Amino acid sequence: MIRQNFGYKLLALIASIFLWFYVNNFQATSDIQNHKNSFSKVFTVPLRVRGISPDCVVTSMPKTVNVTVEGHAEDVNAMSGDENEISARVSLRGYSPGQYTVRVIARLAEPFAGVLRAKSDPVMVNVTLADKAYKEMKLDASFEGTPPEGYRFAPPVISPDRATVYGSKQSLNAVSALVMSVSPSKIGEKEITGDFPILAMDKNGKEIKGLEIVPRQAHLNMALLEVPSKKLAYVIPNVQGQPTIPLRVVGIDTQPRTVALVGRAASLENLDNVETEAIQLSGRKQTFTQQVKLLTPPGVDTPGVKTVAVTVRIAGSP
Predict the structure, then answer these.
(1) Cα(47)–Cα(45) distance, integer angstroms
(2) CB neighbours (10 Å) of residue 45?
(3) What strands, in cross-sheet order, belong to the sheet with 56-60?
(4) CATH of 37-131, one of 2.40.160.40, 1.10.10.1800, 3.40.50.1100, 2.170.120.30
(5) How many other β-carbons are positioned within 10 Å of the β-carbon of residue 266?
(6) How does residue 31 score in pLDDT terms, banded at 50, 70 and 90?
(7) How far apart are CA 296 and CA 260, in angstroms?
């Protein structure tokens, strides 16, 4: 039986051996070629936390890790490196307060997940968990820059006026204030209004990051009030008529000679003098002093001075 078709069987055996060598050689050549075509790139990626207990807070952990992405150069270079494409995270599910060494999971999003490989560096990171604490604080507003010229800020109206900050006891002890920071670009002509993020600040006015604040933002409404301008002006007596001839006026004095004006800048711009109410000289026969009111335009005031003393000196014999 063995000798039957011996030639065919020998030929088949030789063909099988040849095919085995060919396949293995092709696979090795393919692996070498793929290795030559392989390209890698390192991305710095934020390290995120998943599955943490609501009663715990992370107090120590690297903020970022390096992730090496490997594959064909064209595919790797097509990545921008943002978190929509590549991510790194640690799972803290089931962990209680303490110190741990946890594996970093690096993942690629579609369509890169199927064609590229990702590996984090380091592979393991140290993470410290603590009991979560909280405290409720009143909100305040902080302004970068100054209000427009001629205006001042009215007291802010904040809603809600309180927020709760969560974190470790140590980090909460460093929180001095919860504020809403308003940049100059948000300051309008009449008021500041809008929803602004709440920031935790230390006693030196520096932001403390990594804390949970509820709510994350609050509504602020604050009017801009016009600041009155001030200006000195001369008092001009409004003298009308003449004394009986041959009497004549030889001098006029006012006390005070100048007064401080307060009002809108536009109203004071061209206002250098302030007149008094009329002082009649007809029938006057001698020097006299009279208290008279100051006449100011609408919106202009003379704080603390409502009248001035005008002395008119008259000489000659009737």
Answers:
(1) 6
(2) 23
(3) 56-60, 124-131, 98-103
(4) 2.170.120.30
(5) 10
(6) very low
(7) 11
Query: Sign of the C-alpha dihedral, residues 147, 148, 153, 157?
Result: negative
Asked if the domains 133-226 and 229-315 are classified in one and the same CATH topology, the answer is yes
Three-state DSSP state, 176: coil
Q: Structure tokens of 289? A: 């002093």
The fold for domain 133-226 equals RNA Polymerase Alpha Subunit; Chain A, domain 2 (2.170.120)
Longest dimension (CA), the chain: 172
pLDDT over 80 (residue 207): yes
pLDDT on residue 83: 85
Phi, psi of 18 (to 5 degrees): -65, -40
C-alpha–C-alpha distance, residues 207 and 201, integer Å: 4
Average pLDDT over residues 62-80: 90
Bridge partners of 69, per DSSP, are 41, 118
Closest by CA position to 165, among listed 155, 176, 150, 181: 176
- How far is Cα 19 from Cα 8, in angstroms, rounded to an integer? 16
CB atoms within 10 A of CB 150: 14
Amino acid identity of residue 8, one-letter, is Y
Residue with tokens 């209000």: 147
Q: Which residue has the tokens 């590549």?
A: 86
Query: Measured between alpha carbons, how far is 130 from 257 in angstroms, rounded to an integer?
Result: 73
214: its two tokens: 């509820």
Q: What are the tokens at 61? A: 């952990």
Alpha-carbon distance of 78 to 1, in angstroms, equals 64
Residue 193: is it exposed, middle or buried by C-beta count within 10 angstroms (0-12/13-18/19+)?
Answer: middle
